[in-house]
Design a protein that fits this description.
Elements (H helix, E strand, L loop, with lengths): L8 H24 L6 H7 L4 H7 L3 H6 L3 H12 L6 H18 L1 H13 L4 H23 L7 H9 L36 E3 L2 E2 L10 E2 L6 E3 L5 E3 L2 E2 L8 E3 L2 E3 L11 E8 L15 E5 L14 E6 L6 E7 L14 E2 L3 E2 L8 E8 L1
Parallel strand pairs: 3-7
Antiparallel strand pairs: 1-8, 2-3, 4-5, 6-7, 9-15, 10-11, 11-12, 12-13, 12-14
Helix pairs in contact: 1-2, 1-7, 5-6, 5-8, 8-9
Length: about 375
């Protein structure tokens, strides 16, 4: 019987210290809030110096998420296994211990997901960690099999086993909710959307009834995965006339069944970064996260079909608007064509960082 290479005492001690620092960071942040916890407090909780902390993590955020040391240790074991062991057995020997350790650290993993849910600015780092882990596993499998870097098999195998060495990219549902649909945008860099989940909404912006002047396309110049678990919708301009030559992207879910059961609540949520523009160069930019009523697809006219604008921003103003549309136009229960809205709300940093935008509908 073949067994995994054993860790030495020094390596075990290093992993224990790293795990203790991460767990302490999570406990302190869960209890006191992200902005109220320092590296010094985390170090003191583990009876080590701040210098020791920085031997393991580059920042407080990295301690909360974990980083790539755990998957690195697993891949060191994988590479150390004799070459005569077949791939499936080598992966089993390297990754089964990780899965067993996850059971031992179940409370820490659950706490990490809760901290990320409470602090969505950590989500991009969590997503990047998952992508980096999968890429590292892909490279290790390619090396073991002697395959070219662009061979299609290693990424498929890595997608099966890499989650054992990294946390799930999509955080758990808030207390009281059950996750029914999600996408972590983990496609290869430069590729288009997964059309099993999404559909392109293409054509001239003038057809949308909002005064837009761009053309929506399905081009990967406008809509693409960046390889870091982000979907990018990018506005591009060509020519010298600012009133023409614009292209951008607009996508919808294939599914049209989102909604709360009678007496229930549905939550729709996304972590987004608005275009990195200001009022000096952002005139005309109008990023939006909308919910359009399913009847619109079967010919029911707006606003009778319904619309919930979770987030809209205009002209790089570092602010957001939320609006509900319904009934008839003009007038009606939703005061069309204005709708029932939140008014403009300040959103400092929304152009330069990711923020969590959500709406809950209570029936």
């Amino acid at each position: 019987m073949t067994t995994s290479p054993a860790l030495g005492r020094r390596d075990r001690k290093k992993l224990e210290t790293r795990a203790a620092l991460s767990a302490a960071a999570l406990r302190l942040v869960a209890a006191n809030g992200l902005e109220h916890v320092t590296v010094e407090q985390i170090s003191e909780a583990c009876d080590v110096s701040s210098r020791t902390f920085f031997n393991y993590f580059a920042s407080k955020d990295e301690a909360l998420i974990g980083g790539d040391a755990e998957i690195g240790q697993t891949l060191d074991m994988f590479r150390a296994l004799p070459p005569e062991i077949d791939l499936v057995e080598a992966l089993r020997l390297a990754f089964v211990p990780v899965i067993l350790q996850m059971e031992d650290h179940r409370e820490t993993i659950s706490l990490r997901m809760r901290v990320v849910a409470d602090n969505p600015q950590l989500l991009p780092r969590l997503l990047a960690t998952g992508v980096e882990s999968e890429m590292a596993v892909t490279a290790a499998i390619s090396d073991r099999l002697g395959l070219a870097a662009d061979h299609p098999f290693p990424p498929v195998a890595a997608a099966v086993v890499a989650p054992a060495g990294a946390q799930a990219a999509v955080p758990p549902a808030p207390p009281g909710f059950t996750l029914t649909w999600s996408d972590d945008f983990n496609g290869a860099a430069g590729t288009g959307i997964d059309q099993g989940l999404w559909r392109y909404d293409t054509g001239p912006g003038s057809s949308f009834g909002t005064g837009e002047i761009e053309t929506m396309t399905s081009s990967t110049s406008n809509v693409y995965y960046d390889g870091q678990s982000h979907l990018v919708l990018q506005a591009l301009h060509s020519g010298s006339d600012p009133r023409s030559g614009w292209t951008s992207g607009r996508v919808e879910t294939q599914a049209a069944t989102f909604g709360a059961a009678a007496g229930g609540v549905v939550r729709i949520e996304s972590v987004l970064q608005q275009p990195n523009v200001t009022t000096a160069n952002g005139a005309g930019y109008w990023p939006a996260f909308w919910m359009l009523g399913a009847p619109l697809r079967s010919g029911v006219s707006w606003p009778t079909s319904g619309e919930i604008d979770v987030m809209e921003d205009i002209n790089g103003r570092s602010s957001v608007f939320s609006t509900l549309h319904c009934g008839v136009n003009p007038g009606g229960p939703c005061n069309e064509s204005v709708g029932i809205g939140s008014g403009e709300r300040a959103c400092s940093g929304c152009q330069t960082g990711f923020h969590d935008y959500a709406v809950e509908i209570d029936r």
